[in-house]
Amino acid sequence: MNVDSYYVNVDRINMDALPRLTAEQTAERLGVKLETLYAYVARGKLARDRTADGSSFDPLEVERFAAGRRRRSVSGSPATGRSDGRPLMVIETDFALIEDGDLHYRGRRAVELAAEPFETVARWALTGEWDAGARFSPRSGMAAAHRAADELPASAGDRDRQVIAVTALAATDPLRTSLDPATVAGAAERMVAGMVAVLPVATSGADGDASDGDPLALRLHCRLSASTPTPSAVAALNAALVLLIDHDLAVSTLAARAAASARATPYGVVIAGMGALDSPLHGNASRAAHQLLARVVAGEDPARVVADAVVAGPGGPVPGFGQPLYPDGDPRAQALLDLLGAEADAAPVLTAVEAVSALLRDRAAAHPNVDLALGALTLAHGMRDDAGEVIFATARTIGFVVHALAEYGEAPLRLRPVGRYTGPLQGASR
Question: With 0-12 CB in 10 A as exposed, 13-18 as middle and 19+ as buried, what is 63?
């Protein structure tokens, strides 16, 4: 496929024709009051245009300013690039380390482990055992999971089916309350396999007949894409699963650890983590990135697409960009995009990635993160825009249980914080 035919000339974009943000939209985007916004303007930190209709702001300049504020908010040791946990706490973890702009799992670079089978890395994460031939199976319980998932309304998504699968597997596990490490690890493998098996098969013909004896990445591809699962496509999906196993103390991981602190079962831990993961600022961020790239691939102006994302966004960075722990770029994103580069059919999507990335790099000093790469992967492989959420949840389930195993060894309920009452006092005047 000729990549040049999909080239987007960013230099020819008419930035003056792009939608601008109102003062109210800008303040909401930055999470500040209008008074604070105008203080930024007075100090020369943000430029504005004044018209008869009021002040307006360049959306990409606002995004650049917001990205700078996010980077400064990640305080801590410059040597590690890690947050010091303020204002809540620091929780020790012996699995994932982000240091010098790179992610490591127990001292091994995650981008190098991404070339290994997901089940091999997952079993090693759970047990310390390296088994090159590891395969995960849901065993019993899938009949109940399928029956329950089939009763979901048409509006339900694949993530809803996955939650149902975890619940059904818990209900059919006679050892669900056991916190024995080997039993917990086995439950994690069973859950991940069940979360894949509960999804309807999308690939037709012999290519859709992947079984429990096949690698989990192949089984998942057959359920997320109707296209033939080529070796390169399965390798890219496998890499995504490995790279998303864990990432320091993300908000969903904290929720999972809090549940484990209360001695929830491993199934309860995963349900708690998946609840926090179900967020446009976290586990669902790749959907917006997928949609953004799809618009550019369809021929829309990259700058207008980005500006629309700034205007309509939930207050965080542009979908797929910015990760304070990686100021020079997310290595997980680069690893996945490099794998997509080996696929000829991915050329239009990668061209869109470069067009949007060049714009954000030049105007907002923002780099692609793993959500953009996940959006690119799902778009290039003909998957739905919510497929990235399924990939993320499947992989992070292993991370949740890795953290649960660590938390089970700590004092119970240690993650129960103390609230500080700020409401009205008794007898206060009405």
Answer: buried
Contact in structure between 377 and 237 (CB atoms under 8 Å): yes
What H or E segment, with its residue span, contains residue 420? none
pLDDT at 11 over 50: no
- pLDDT at position 114, please? 98
- Cross-sheet strand order for the sheet of 102-105: 96-99, 102-105, 108-109
Comparison of pLDDT for 5 and 118, the residue scoring more? 118
Please tell me what DSSP assigns to residue 321. Answer: B
Do 265 and 277 have their domain in common? yes
In angstroms, the CA 424 to CA 430 distance is: 10
Q: In whole angstroms, what is the distance from residue 375 CA to residue 34 CA? A: 34
Total domain count, the chain: 2
Q: What is the dihedral of CA 370, 8, 386, 199, to 10 degrees?
A: -100
Question: Which is higher by pLDDT, 393 or 364?
Answer: 393
Taken as a whole, the chain contains a residue count of 430
Q: Which residue has the tokens 């990668």?
A: 350
257 and 376 together in one domain: no
**What residue numbers bound the domain in which 256 lies?**
96-282+386-407
On the 0-12 / 13-18 / 19+ scale of CB atoms within 10 A, 394 is: buried
> How does residue 212 score in pLDDT terms, banded at 50, 70 and 90?
confident
Confidence band (pLDDT; 50, 70, 90) for 219? very high
Which tops the pLDDT comparison, 99 or 211?
99
Q: Tell me how crowded residue 405 is: count the other CB atoms within 10 A of its CB.
A: 21
Q: Is the dihedral of CA 375, 271, 120, 113 positive or negative?
A: positive
